[in-house]
Amino acid sequence: MEDRKMIKKELAQLSFALDDLRLFLDTHPDCLEALKNYNELRCRRDEVIKKYEACIGPVNFYNAGGTTAWNWVQQPWPWEREV
Amino acid sequence: MWSYEKRLQYPVKIKTPNAAAAKVIITQYGGPDGELGASMRYLSQRYTMPWKEAAGLLTDIGTEELAHLEIVSAIVYQLTKGLSVDEIKRQGFDTYFVDHTTGVYPQAASGMPWTAATIQSKGDAITDLHEDLAAEQKARTTYDNILRLVDDPDVLDPIRFLRQREIVHFQRFGEALERAKDSLGEKNFYAFNPGFDCGWKKK
Hints:
The structure holds two protein chains of two kinds.
Chain A: H1 4-27, H2 32-55
Helix pairs in contact in A: 1-2
Chain B: H1 19-25, H2 27-30, H3 35-45, H4 52-79, H5 85-90, H6 94-100, H7 125-149, H8 153-184
């Protein structure tokens, strides 16, 4: 079981890279290099999401659920001071 | 259009409460140049943007600003958690506390509640994009001012991130404006309002 902190950090970094690149693509929609980067980052992020959801919990509520309890509300909310 | 991910765009891990810092930082939540205003401005302007790329940019930056108001709120929340009444009085937080306790309320540092009076959605693409350029600079200056007033590295870290994003947004709006002017024709991009006048084809 990989380090939860590492997985969270990876997800934050890859997501932010996509956030930044997304804005660039909005004003440079024909930039093939940026498009290629976006697609690559998206693949890497999908892998990290799988690890995150396996070890920690759902990131997006469309992937939430649970068998014995509603898992969406089990993890602390992101504005809480991380212990 | 909104779902969300259960994570902050940038982490907030503040170990030491400080109501005096919270008092000024809250202005980037509900103040005249804060993130709530920014998100409402861009998300309001996007409907009459004649180009889908520009509408996309406004939606994407507007969404990012929602993520930012959340970060600012998390900072205020963590800065005011665990305060004693004595600290509240000493740090000049009593006037906020009496109306909101340590609840997070969208107001400026002055105490003025958030108002749409400080934003504009003019329904004219050239005008709106200029408004957006100014908005990003005003936000950047506000963060500069916060950085002068605050010492705690736990607080400076997310504030520096937010400040940097304003600069990037400014850059993107500049590009959107150039594309808009090119699209309308370099001879006279004031000839008509593409968000309103008929006969202009939406691209």
